[in-house]
Amino acid sequence: MKHEWRKHEKELYLPKAIPELVKIPKQKFFMIKGKGNPNDEDFSERIGVLYTMSYAVRMMPKNGFTPEGYFEYTVYPLEGLWDLTEEGKKADALNKDELLYTIMIRQPDFVDENVAEKALAITRKKKPHPLLDEIVFDEVEDGLSIQMLHKGSYNNEPENFAKMKEFMDNSGLQRKSMIHREIYLSDARKVEEDKLKTVLRYMVK
């Protein structure tokens, strides 16, 4: 049976529109770092190479190589870790040019270093791109976290971050880092702004 993350991992990817406490297990990702406005072309290019790599893994059996433990699955959604430069943190208002980010796409558990290297080799041959040199394959474990579903414009996220902070304070928790994670359940290029769905999450202790 095909593994559909929307069906089989609802607790991680389809939270309610209210803050909740979750424990995120160790996960594998293709990742790439960047700086600047996510509306710029550079950000789109980085997303593109992540998806190309991810689909290289997904389509391996059709290209004559089946990784050990491979199973049919739906490619996971784009995620991002967001922070600000020191200059950006000093500003009174958000300057998107000062954003620091790591965008990533989760990979199934059967993906290891060998499979990642195979995906890179396939991608270099079929869709060469200079940004492929910046792709990293690694494991990340968020652990104890607060998350909730955000609906609508990314610019309105602070309203829900305020709700998450209130929940955190009332639960006697503290943030581990000012970096937060976003999981993009909607494609901003195809979905109207007011219908966008994004998981907001940050790690706590």
TrEMBL record:
It holds the Pfam family GyrI-like. InterPro entries: GyrI-like (IPR029442), GyrI-like_CCH_Lin2189-like (IPR008319), Reg_factor_effector_dom_sf (IPR011256). Residues 19-199 form the GyrI-like small molecule binding domain. This is GyrI-like small molecule binding domain-containing protein. It comes from Clostridium carboxidivorans P7. The lineage of its organism: Bacteria, Bacillati, Bacillota, Clostridia, Eubacteriales.
